[in-house]
Specification:
- There is one protein chain.
- The chain has 384 residues and is of the alpha/beta class.
- The chain is built from 12 helices and 14 strands.
- Helix 6 links the parallel strand 5 and strand 6.
Length: 384
């Protein structure tokens, strides 16, 4: 009988503690205003779903409610951090939902999707055919390998040799006039931000030189007197996407850049379809934008003109790029190898619109530079 009373008492205590915890969190969630933007995760928080007969009948309401509850739970970040720390340091797992920590900092597994890569490369070949018809013959291509290849341990991520093989096979067609530039051996772990997927502009001068080719010299403004190499300036701290996704307080990177006062910049106004003057480096991005990487060429832009006001060259480069191109394009422009560089982001402007918006010139080159993330998602490239 005594043991039975103890069991009942223990059951009551467990129930009371459970209700206390549940009620406590309920009250906290009522007292603490839920955020509209999850700043660390760089996305808006889920809104409370509308209750309709259809949404309840099809269980959509409950699915949306679960997403809302997870985003608006009190101490969400603290619990996410605890989960990450437990995953890596208690259970010693190599990743959390595909996110890892390695010698190259934090990253996300980026396996090659072979069929998607082939579709992306075929879209690039279609653009190349259009360029050839427009009289552009010197056309080059390079892919940016995922930084997981520098993680320092085995991760089921990017396969560099597989990527090279796919590119070589797709561009082996004798009717394809694309020169492949392999920049992988030029890169190393220190070329990338530890908290982000992108590369550090101050570390990729050798990559810029390789993309320009041996016939050009990377002759940058603002060089040091001792070495003759460009002297980077510091803009401030930079925290990339991965600390927020992992819910970890990682030491921020330093955002460094190469000044280039001899570059005139203009952007396409998507509303007026006209080019408007802008800045090469958007300093306000460090404090006002959700992604500080928008410092380079103001972030996502469909079309940008970079004009070197001091070069003797009269050549034009059509530069097809993604976000990685935002930081390397200023180096290519400031080198003086081209009078004008036209930066085209096919994620935001359809190939069929290019000839309507810009006047294609003769005596021009073309360069395609894409990261593995874009090549894995051919649908984002607006090539019909």
């Amino acid at each position: 009988m005594h043991d039975e009373k103890k069991e009942k008492l223990r059951g009551m205590l467990i129930t009371i503690v459970f209700l206390f915890v549940l009620g406590g969190f309920f009250i906290l969630n009522r007292l603490i205003s839920p955020p509209e933007i999850l700043t660390d995760e760089r996305r808006p928080a889920e809104k409370f779903p509308k209750i309709t007969a259809e949404s309840v009948a099809k269980t959509k309401f409950m699915d949306d409610f679960e997403l809302w509850a997870a985003d608006n739970f009190a101490f969400r970040k603290a619990f996410r951090t605890l989960h990450t720390e437990t995953t890596f340091h208690v259970f010693f797992q190599t990743d959390k939902n595909g996110l890892y920590l390695g010698n190259s900092g934090a990253g996300k597994f980026e396996k090659i999707k072979e069929e998607e890569w082939k579709q992306s490369l075929r879209k690039i070949k279609k653009v190349e055919q259009n360029l050839t018809e427009w009289g552009i013959e010197n056309i080059r291509f390079a892919f940016i390998p995922d930084k997981s290849i520098f993680a320092g341990r085995y991760f089921p991520g990017f396969d560099l040799e597989e990527a090279r093989q796919i590119v070589e096979t797709e561009f082996s067609d004798p009717e394809t006039n694309i020169e492949i530039i392999d920049i992988a051996n030029t890169l190393n772990a220190s070329d990338f931000y530890r908290t982000d997927l992108h590369w550090d502009q101050s570390q990729i001068l050798d990559v810029a030189q390789q993309l320009l080719g041996t016939s050009y010299k990377l002759n940058m403004e603002h060089s040091t007197s001792e070495t003759g190499s460009p002297s980077p300036q510091t803009a401030g701290d930079f925290t990339g996407v991965y600390p927020g996704q992992l819910a970890l307080n990682m030491k921020p990177d330093t955002l460094r850049y190469i000044p280039a006062n001899n570059i005139r910049v203009s952007y396409l106004d998507v509303h007026t379809q006209e080019m408007t003057t802008g800045v090469l480096y958007k300093e306000k991005a460090l404090t006002e934008d959700m992604d500080a990487y928008d410092f380079f060429l103001s972030g996502s832009q469909p079309l940008i003109f970079l004009e070197n006001t001091q070069t003797t060259s009269d050549r034009t480069l059509y530069f097809f790029r993604d976000s990685f191109g935002s930081s390397i394009a200023p180096l290519l422009a400031a080198s003086g190898s081209y009078k004008k560089i036209v930066c085209i982001d096919l994620r935001y402007i359809d190939l069929r619109m290019i000839s309507q918006v810009i006047t294609l010139t003769e005596n021009a080159d073309a360069l395609f530079l894409y990261s593995s993330q874009i090549l894995n998602n051919p649908t984002v490239l607006l090539v019909g």
